[in-house]
């Protein structure tokens, strides 16, 4: 089992023929991802050879789904065109759209997320500005390095890409059912809570690691959800303990105002919900080991 992505997922890549899209399509194929097509209206009807694998290019997401049965799209589309690309994926009712693109205007993200909701939430959006998700040994949709961990019993949900990689590496000997990078922009599709609910329901996940960061109240809301709905052990880490007030830290959503959104406030909310919170990623990994060791 895994959440959102598994060995049966059929993946298309919007923006596959660009330099970034080609690079990561090659890497995803190397991780065993079943990539069945690319989408580029200007190159429809052609195909791309990647290390001996011929991948057809389609004009639209709808056509790609019709011809291949695709149920996941990974988007490597420049920020200016990302909104239109996500809307196209939503119109085609693809079940999962993974938006890797960084620098999408917040009002564009808000618009395509609201559109997805208005269309009945038939398309789960992960991102934007995220590393995507991986179910090790099964499928990789995005830019997470596939060789830093193995299949296992830990579920990981994280706002930060680099901290996703670090935590996967720290716990590589135990391994992961799935790791989901949800992105750190002010508006995102899939949230901590969505991933927590999916991991709670996944019989192959024994422990959940949740990585948050300063800014907003997503972690506080996740803490409330954990308290009411999550029976599995959860270990947390909040990035940004040393961040000065009012300064944007890396991610567009990581802004602290007053005591709201601070790492300390988030840590306290999580601990009140029974989550063990590490002060560093390494300490967080150690807490996870101790719980799994019983």
Automatic annotation (TrEMBL):
Q: Which residues bind substrate?
A: 165
Catalytic reaction annotation = succinate + ATP + CoA = succinyl-CoA + ADP + phosphate; GTP + succinate + CoA = succinyl-CoA + GDP + phosphate
GO MF assignments: nucleotide binding; succinate-CoA ligase (ADP-forming) activity; succinate-CoA ligase (GDP-forming) activity
- Name the GO terms of the biological process aspect: tricarboxylic acid cycle
Keyword Transferase attached: no
**Keyword annotations:** Ligase, Nucleotide-binding, Tricarboxylic acid cycle
InterPro entries in UniProt: Cit_synth/succinyl-CoA_lig_AS, Citrt_syn/SCS-alpha_CS, CoA-bd, CoA_lig_alpha, NAD(P)-bd_dom_sf, SUCC_ACL_C, Succinyl-CoA_synth-like
Catalytic residues in the record: 251 (tele-phosphohistidine intermediate)
Occurrences of domain CoA-binding (ranges):
4-104
Which residue ranges does UniProt annotate as crossing the membrane?
A: none
Return the similarity comment: Belongs to the succinate/malate CoA ligase alpha subunit family.
Task: Name the chain's protein.
Answer: Succinate--CoA ligase [ADP-forming] subunit alpha
Where does this protein come from, organism-wise? Answer: Streptomyces luteolifulvus
């Amino acid at each position: 089992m895994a959440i959102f992505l598994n060995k049966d997922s059929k993946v298309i890549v919007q923006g596959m023929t660009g330099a970034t899209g080609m690079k990561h399509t090659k890497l995803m194929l190397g991780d065993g991802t079943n990539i069945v097509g690319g989408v580029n209206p200007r190159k429809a009807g052609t195909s791309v050879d990647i290390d001996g694998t011929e991948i057809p290019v389609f004009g639209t997401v709808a056509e790609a789904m019709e011809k291949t049965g695709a149920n996941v799209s990974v988007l490597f589309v420049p920020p200016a065109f990302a909104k239109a690309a996500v809307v196209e994926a939503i119109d085609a009712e693809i079940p999962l759209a993974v938006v890797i693109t960084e620098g999408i205007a917040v009002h564009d993200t808000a618009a395509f997320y609201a559109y997805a909701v208005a269309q009945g939430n038939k398309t789960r959006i992960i991102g934007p500005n995220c590393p995507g998700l991986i179910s090790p040994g099964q499928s990789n949709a995005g830019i997470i390095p596939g060789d830093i961990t193995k299949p296992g019993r830990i579920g990981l949900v994280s706002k930060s890409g680099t901290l996703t990689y670090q935590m996967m590496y720290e716990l590589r000997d135990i391994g992961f059912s799935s790791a989901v990078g949800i992105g750190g922009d002010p508006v995102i599709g899939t949230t901590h809570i969505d991933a927590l609910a999916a991991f709670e329901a996944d019989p192959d996940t024994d422990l959940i690691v949740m990585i948050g960061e300063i800014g907003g109240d997503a972690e506080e809301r996740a803490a409330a959800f954990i308290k009411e709905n999550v029976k599995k052990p959860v270990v947390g880490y909040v990035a940004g303990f040393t961040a000065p007030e009012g300064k944007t830290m890396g991610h567009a959503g990581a802004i602290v105002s007053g005591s709201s959104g601070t790492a300390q406030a988030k840590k306290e909310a999580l601990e009140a919900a029974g989550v063990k919170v590490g002060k560093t990623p390494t300490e967080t990994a150690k807490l996870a080991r101790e719980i799994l060791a019983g």
